Protein: Sugar kinase
Amino acid sequence: MTRERATAFVPGHVTAFFSAHPADSPAAAGSRGAGLTLTDAVEATVELGGDTGDTPDSPSLSLNG
Structure:
């Protein structure tokens, strides 16, 4: 049986400065800032789990295997 799987490449980022601009309306709220994107990154993979004895929709987390 094959499991459905998705992988995302997430580049590193260092924020140099940041300012929030809240507003009563979400459409008018926002932020400003700048920083550096790094070549170091993380690759995150998720897949549908197998039968763990929990309910079928119960989420689980596994780190490093």
Summary: The chain has a mean pLDDT of 82. The longest strand covers residues 30-47.
